[in-house]
Amino acid sequence: MTIENRWLLPEGIDELLPERAAQLESLRRRLLDQCVTWGYRYVIPPLVEFTDSLLIGLGADLDVVTCKFTDQMSGRMLGVRADITPQTARMDAHSLAEDGVTRLCYAGSTLQSTPQSVVSGRAPIQLGAELYGSNCIEADSEVITLMLSMFEAAGVTRSLTLDIGHIGIYDALFSEVGLGPDVEAEIFDALQRKSTPDIERLASTLTADMAEKLLILSSLHGSSDVIGKARAALGGEAVVRNALDELETALEQVRLAYPEVDVYIDLTELRGFRYHTGLVFAVYLEGRGSAIAKGGRYDNIGAVFGRDRPATGFAIDLKALVDDAATPQSKDVPVVAPLSSDPALREAIAALRKAGRVVVIDVPPGVALPEAERLIQRDGQWVTERETAS
Prior knowledge:
9-stranded mixed β-sheet; BirA Bifunctional Protein, domain 2
C-alpha cells in the first residue's frame, strides 16, 4: 500500500463522520430509551467470543459470515460477532440464569465477512430487544409491537410494511420428511429468494405430494386472505393449523396497536439466520428495497448453554434507519471562549457546560463555526454574545 492510498478502508467497511455519527448516536439513545420504558434491560455483549460458544448450534449461514481468527493467548478460535442475538441468548441462559421472563436490549457494532446489506456493508450497527422465558403468542405480539414503536420513536414518516410469516409451516412440510440435507438446503434457499424457476426445478425432483406442497407454499404470500388459503390447502396438519392460529393472533394484537401499518403475509418468509423456530417478521420502509428490522422466535439456542429457554426478539439496522429518522434540533449554538487563565472565565465555562451547553476554547489558529455565541467580558462578568460567522 502506497502513501497515497493508506486512507483506504477495506471494502464494505465505512466510518461515520461527526454529523452522521451524532445523528446515529441520537437515534441509538432514543431507541434504547424506548426499550427501557417497556421493561427491557440494557446489556453489552463482548465484541468477540470463542467460536465454540458464538456459533454452536446456529447453522452454517451464521458461520459463513462470521470473521474468525486465532486467539494468541489461548490458541483457540475467536469470532467477531456477526449477529448479537445469540450472545444475548447465552447471557440469559448462563450469565443471568433468571427464573420467569427476562427482557434484554442491546446496541453495538457487528462484522460480517461478506455484506448482507448494501446500506450497512460489512459492519452494521445492530440494536435489538429479546424476550426470554415465554412461549406464548402474547410475547411475540409484544416484541413485534415494540419493534413498530421504535419507528415511531425515531420519527420515521415513510409508510411501514410489516412482512410476517411462520417458519413452523415450512418446518412441518419439509424439515422432517426425510429429504436429504442438500435438497432441503436448496428448497430453503429457493424459497428465500422466491426463485420460481428453481422452485419448479426442485418440485420436479420430489414426490407428487411433496411437489404439490412446495408449489402451494411458494404461492402463499400477499394480503390477509393468505391465511385462509393456507388453511384450505395445508390445514390438514396440526402443526400448520397451530402456526396459522399463532399468526392470526399476533396480527390481531399488532393491528390494535398500529392499524395504519401495512401487513404483508408471507408464508415463505425465511429471511435471516436459520435459527428461527416460529413467527418471523421484518419491517420495510416505503421506497426501500431491503428490510430495516428483522426478528422472530428462536426457542432452541439456550439449550446449547445448558438452559433451554423459549425466546423471541428483533434487531434493527441503525445505519439503514438513520437517514429516515428525525434528528432533534437543538436551539442552542456552541459558545466560543477565549484562551485565558482567568479563574472567573473557567467558572463561567464550567457553569455553561454543567447546564448542557457546548463550549469550545478558541485555541490558535482559531475555530470557525457557522453560527456561535462568544463568551466575552462585560462589566467584570463573563457573558455570552451571539455572533454569526461571515
